[in-house]
Design brief:
Layout (H helix, E strand, L loop, with lengths): L3 E4 L1 H5 L8 H12 L3 E5 L4 H10 L8 E4 L4 E4 L5 E4 L4 H14 L2 E5 L4 E3 L4 H10 L3 E3 L13 E5 L3 H14 L24 H6 E7 L2 E6 L4 H12 L6 E5 L5 H6 L2 E4 L5 H6 L2 E2 L7 H9 L10
Parallel strand pairs: 1-2, 1-12, 2-3, 7-8, 12-13, 13-14
Antiparallel strand pairs: 3-4, 4-5, 6-7, 6-9, 9-11, 10-11
Length: about 300
């Protein structure tokens, strides 16, 4: 019997308009009524998780959230931190300097701000969706005491900017136009573009085509779900994980049942045990109905 379901937010729990469908909401409540622990696991900061945890009724100290792609685990009732892994100032300097070599921009997530050295669309969208203020700062003079949970490399080349404008329309964001260049049109931002030193000392994840998330070594959603399951006395084989992008792959590999959304990256589908419907087709609801409630036996292609 499955006792814990870890669910990614964007592209998984949420439809493209950033809402939870009534079908998904109902299935999650039915699973909770059967005693199944629901854990939202996201690349967003805790502020960006709480809107949806409250909608789902996950508001007590027996409810947990994994944020910043695994860098933080909170009790949702009080925001008590159960686990935290941050980047050092030396880490930040290395990563910032390498971003300049690539000709791209980046942002750094603290507990209360998203910091960026230049105005860019990606950070504006993240700030809006995660309900956390954005601040443009001089990264060359960033205080050494700044606590950074994770860094995101951003390559806003022409193609990605077109994609971001489509996202902005869907979420109805009032944004500040960007005039300066924040990308390298000759660069495909992939993990293999990073130095050996970065790969040896950090976790590198790919949540979208033109971004890379960088966290402390050996920190990811999978490690945090494992940590949480151990605290709760839940076995690995009793865990379901559902996701769609590169920062979900570790929890999908860890879980007793790893589920890829129908809209997931190819490598996520390849790593999964089962492929459900897309986020526009209530893929999360289908998983719960099939594997928890014993319904929804319709075949998924």
């Amino acid at each position: 019997m499955y006792k814990l379901i870890a669910i990614d937010i964007d592209g998984t729990l949420l439809k493209n308009d950033k809402t939870i469908s009534s079908e998904t909401f109902t299935s999650i409540q039915n699973a909770r009524n059967k005693g199944v622990k629901i854990v939202l696991a996201t690349g967003r900061p805790i502020q960006g998780l709480e809107k949806y945890s409250k909608q789902l009724g996950l508001t007590t100290n027996q409810d947990y959230g994994v944020s910043c792609s695994g860098a933080l685990i909170h009790r949702l009732g009080t925001r008590e931190v159960l686990f935290r892994s941050t980047l050092t100032y030396e880490d930040f300097q290395l990563l910032y300097n390498f971003s300049k070599r690539l000709g791209i921009t980046l942002n750094a997530l603290t507990d209360s701000l998203i910091l960026t050295p230049s105005l860019n669309l990606t950070t504006q969208i993240e700030s809006f969706l995660s309900n956390i203020p954005m601040k443009i700062v001089d990264f060359d003079t960033l205080p050494k005491t700044t606590i950074i949970n994770r860094i995101v490399y951003i390559n806003e080349n022409e193609a990605f900017i077109n994609h971001l404008h489509n996202v902005i329309k869907k979420i109805n964001l009032s944004y500040t136009p960007v005039s300066e260049k924040n990308g390298n049109d000759n660069l495909s931002l992939s993990k293999d573009k990073l130095s050996k030193k970065i790969h040896e000392n950090f976790t590198v994840l790919k949540p979208s085509s033109n971004t890379l998330e960088i966290l402390s070594k050996d920190v990811n959603k999978g490690s945090s779900i494992s940590f949480l399951a151990e605290i709760l006395g839940i076995k690995q084989e009793e865990v379901i994980a559902i996701g769609d992008s590169g920062n979900d792959i570790d929890m999908i590999k860890y879980a007793g049942l790893g589920i890829a959304m129908g809209n997931a990256f190819p490598e996520i589908k390849e790593a999964s045990d089962y492929i459900t419907y897309t986020n526009e087709e209530d893929g999360v609801a289908h998983v719960i109905d099939k594997f928890i409630l014993g319904e929804g036996e319709k075949e998924v292609i």
